[in-house]
Amino acid sequence: MRVGIVGGHGKTGRAVAAALAVRGVESVALGRSDQPDLAALAGCDAAYLVAPNFHPDEPAYVASALAACERHGVGRVVYHSVASPYLPAMPHHLGKARSEDLVRRSGLGWTIVQPAVYLQNFDLTRPLLVPYDVHAPFGFLDLADLGEAAATVLTEDRHEGATYELASRTGSVADLAAGAGTSAERVEVGPDVPEGLRTMFAYYDAYGLPAGTLVLRALLGRP
Ligand SMILES: NC(=O)c1ccc[n+]([C@@H]2O[C@H](COP(=O)([O-])OP(=O)(O)OC[C@H]3O[C@@H](n4cnc5c(N)ncnc54)[C@H](OP(=O)(O)O)[C@@H]3O)[C@@H](O)[C@H]2O)c1
């Protein structure tokens, strides 16, 4: 089996490729230089679609990748969405909600994964300084768990038509810090922080981004 990972050179794609390699599955990472034809998808049995962070038009990026899958005979696609995609207050989440709709109507065999906030976004060897409430509720996802779940979904038939919210653990940034023996503190957003991130931090401050852990446990067959 061969899997094309579109947007595959970032930390997400690398985690998926590593987990596939453990299963003896070959993968090919596609980046900007492969756009828009994505010719390296030819000969792939499945594609894993990752949009770059804060892409200004994720539905267009996903539509183009779905068309490339069709063109190159890739019948199976797994789309890397996000936990709680339908959040009208956050345009980059809404872009994923619209992209999910494109995936579901693509005519390809599809699965959607909705990952929680990556644990690897936090350096637990230092005090955690975040521009939102450190007690806000979150689901957190370990990238190794994401890779394993993605590899499971890509290599088994029974996940077609499924949408899976993925989190390794729940809690707050304060809980993460306490577990790692460090501290957590809310800081002001810096003046150079882009608008999309500001909007995201404001949402996190008010509501966090909760996600559940049971689906990931079921997929991995372990806690
Ligand atoms: N961070 C989190 O906590 C979190 C949680 C849930 C979901 N996500 C989602 O995970 C994804 C980001 O994953 P990541 O951080 O691993 O990816 P990333 O580093 O943002 O992107 C990596 C890939 O995107 C390609 N790329 C960058 N700009 C592009 C453009 N304009 N057009 C086409 N391709 C482009 C890069 O190509 P090159 O190889 O050419 O550089 C690279 O292969 C996002 O969709 C994000 O919403 C993140």
TrEMBL record:
Pfam families: NAD_binding_10. InterPro entries: NAD(P)-bd_dom (IPR016040), NAD(P)-bd_dom_sf (IPR036291), NmrA-like_oxidored (IPR051164). It comes from the Bacteria. SUPFAM superfamilies: NAD(P)-binding Rossmann-fold domains. Keywords: NADP. Residues 39-130 form the NAD(P)-binding domain. Signal peptide: none annotated. This is NAD(P)H-binding protein.
